[in-house]
Amino acid sequence: MMTNSDKRADIIQAALELIADRGFHGAPMSAIADKAHVAAGTIYRYFENKDVLINELFLELENNVIGVLLHDYPSGKPVHDQFFHVFGELCRYLISHPLHFRYMEQYFNSPYGISKRRDKLVGKKIDPDGHDTLIGIFQEGISQQILKDLPLIVLSSLAIGPMLYLIRDHTLGFVALDDSLILQITEACWDGIRSSANI
Amino acid sequence: MMTNSDKRADIIQAALELIADRGFHGAPMSAIADKAHVAAGTIYRYFENKDVLINELFLELENNVIGVLLHDYPSGKPVHDQFFHVFGELCRYLISHPLHFRYMEQYFNSPYGISKRRDKLVGKKIDPDGHDTLIGIFQEGISQQILKDLPLIVLSSLAIGPMLYLIRDHTLGFVALDDSLILQITEACWDGIRSSANI
Amino acid sequence: MMTNSDKRADIIQAALELIADRGFHGAPMSAIADKAHVAAGTIYRYFENKDVLINELFLELENNVIGVLLHDYPSGKPVHDQFFHVFGELCRYLISHPLHFRYMEQYFNSPYGISKRRDKLVGKKIDPDGHDTLIGIFQEGISQQILKDLPLIVLSSLAIGPMLYLIRDHTLGFVALDDSLILQITEACWDGIRSSANI
Amino acid sequence: MMTNSDKRADIIQAALELIADRGFHGAPMSAIADKAHVAAGTIYRYFENKDVLINELFLELENNVIGVLLHDYPSGKPVHDQFFHVFGELCRYLISHPLHFRYMEQYFNSPYGISKRRDKLVGKKIDPDGHDTLIGIFQEGISQQILKDLPLIVLSSLAIGPMLYLIRDHTLGFVALDDSLILQITEACWDGIRSSANI
DNA sequence: AATGAATGAGGTTTCATTCAT
DNA sequence: TATGAATGAAACCTCATTCAT
């Protein structure tokens, strides 16, 4: 039914806004219910408990991100182009969705997120649709000797770490990331991961 | 007196371990007291309230880090050497003090840390002893045209972001950072920030 | 709904009994909850905190008193009759509601009550319905030269002070105030405030 | 020894000031110790516990008052003179010792004071030196048919009640009791208690 | 005799969750 | 299905009292 899924979406949205803004323990279930225009008990018809709500919210956001990265993905193009596509899209998405970004940051820095991270990295092949786009790019880049021959997780941090910190600074107002600056940062990260041999 | 400082240190240590492990709200005062072998009320002889405890603990860790970075600092040496010194020392310190690292991560991702971050970045010259070593290195590097001419906060993220993510992965067991790998990462970060002109 | 107002009333009543009996700090919220047959947390659905509970309880009692004084008030009758009406009604009310009396005594002798008292006396015209009956009587009496020309607050104390002390003694069992004695006391107080000139 | 009694006096004075100012539960033992420039534990060398301290402090104040009332007491003079002496002295004493007044008010409105009051009034002849001056005056006045033939406790309230309320108002700044006003109040109270027959 | 650090029971308040309606 | 009042465990913090020094 429509109403049904509407309420679920309202709850998810309310939780997102509150947690992004005030952290997990600044977002009591009662406040989420209020903001969702729903009774406290209603939340429990859609989510078994608060942990489940938090985790399902994360999964939705994660799917959003994956969708964005795959949209217009330049399959078959050079590794360089693929990297610039993924980096740019991700950056623009997070900048234009600061609540999503703040939420995921909170999530990864909490008991919830730790296990998530472990699942993802240890399992490596969590999603059967091959969504781990960056990993794929790096593997290809290494085998083509375009990228430094470092563990994938290291390349991943070199490529993504700076961006995530800068987006935080952007949302906090310490720096203004415009297209020109984003491009410079992308290039700097590319400089960091590409093989020094072929310079 | 001995007893005095012992108890304070015990409390600090207990708080560090619990919060690093379970986050701020997985560390109730009663649990900290238990772990410190101290009565609940005793904590309040040393710290006005939980917030103060959390902030003082952070300040202690911050001082540790500053001390480490300044130890054997290669003043007068080239920017390149200074960067490698700071990066390496910081990395080794955080790897060998995983609780300190986890704690600071939690701290920066919380209401406490946000303001701290703002103070640090806006104020820029917080500590009169010139402890803001990285910023100094970057300024010098830019003026010598050795480093990319980017906002200091961007250089800072390019240089430090990857390391911080990798140390988290290291403490979680997803990668093993040995001296050789650390050196490679340092070089990769240096590649990221140095001016492309003089390659 | 019934349940709603019932619970609130139960809490108010429990607080009244405990505080009247044992003072503010002999009445922890847990004890109030127990006596009201309610969970501790339930109190906070009806009152934001203990202070609010204490103040709202006072306001309810105050309204009771005002209602009693205005009931059958002999408007248009001589000042003497009005005084005897108010004095008698107040006295009978307080004697038959010893908990209300004890509560208000505690209240006026506490940080809560001090400010209340100041509001009342400085503001003077707190309630727009002209409930400040005694003050009105005194003003009329002075202008008719029936009463001593003293500050209103002095007349007020002369008229009410003895009664309040005696009601305390009555509730403690040191004296038995029957109708005859109440009348004699009323007359004595009247003797105290009326102008000596027209004797 | 001097030092000994000095400390006891310091503690008594500190307790007086704090409790008069902030009430019993705004005066923790630690605060009393601080204000008395004494260690917390020291208080317990002079007073078994907080209750004992509170009660002994009251007894000291009570003795002060008795001393004042007996000083220059017009024995053998008419009841009228004796009443004016006692009323005036008491009034002046309380006005010039607002802390004593506030303390005794708090005391009488608390579990401590209730029992005290009972002792006093039931026992009636508590102190063997005949200090119950007012009662004596009233007995004499009744037998001489100068005063109304009312229970002693009623006369007592008629005579003292207004004054106590007015002193409170004075200490709160709602009225300024000067010698002239005190005299008028004394006369009004006298009007209240004296026999109407011989007017 | 004096100290004051330490204790821990007990106070107020919050909030995830349940359940009668 | 939805509600939201009610619950009570658990959080933070205070403070009278003790006791080793």
What labels would you give this structure?
0% strand; 73% helix; elongated; 199 residues; Tetracycline Repressor, domain 2; DNA-binding; 10 helices; mainly alpha; homotetramer; Arc Repressor Mutant, subunit A
Task: Provide a concise account of the structure shown.
Chain A is mainly alpha-helical.
Give an overview of the whole structure:
The structure is a homotetramer. Chain A has helices at about 1-20, 30-35, 40-45, 50-70, 80-95, 100-110, 110-125, 135-145, 150-170, 180-195. The termini of chain A are far apart. Chain A is mainly alpha-helical and about 200 residues long. In chain A, helix 2 (about 30-35) packs across helix 3 (about 40-45) and helix 8 crosses helix 9 (about 150-170). At the C-D interface, helix 7, helix 9 and helix 10 of C face helix 7, helix 9 and helix 10 of D. Chain B binds a DNA duplex (21 and 21 nucleotides) through helix 1 and helix 3.
Largest interface: A-B, 44 and 45 residues
Shape of chain A: elongated
The string of secondary-structure elements of chain A, in order, is HHHHHHHHHH
What structural category arises from helix and sheet content of chain A?
Answer: mainly alpha
CATH architecture of the largest domain in chain A: Orthogonal Bundle
CATH superfamily of the largest domain in chain A: Tetracycline Repressor, domain 2
In DSSP terms (H or I, runs of 4 or more residues), the helix count of chain A works out at 10
Remind me, CATH topology of the largest domain in chain A? Answer: Tetracycline Repressor, domain 2
- The first-level CATH class of the largest domain in chain A is given as Mainly Alpha
The overall pLDDT of chain A, averaged over residues, is 87
User: What portion of residues of chain A is helical?
Assistant: over 70%
Strand content of chain A: under 5%
In angstroms, what is the radius of gyration of chain A? 19 Å
Contiguous runs where pLDDT drops below 50 for at least 5 residues of chain A: 121-131
What distance separates the N and C termini of chain A?
59 Å
Give the biggest beta sheet of chain A: none
Q: Quaternary arrangement of the chains shown?
A: homotetramer
Total discrete domains of chain A: 2
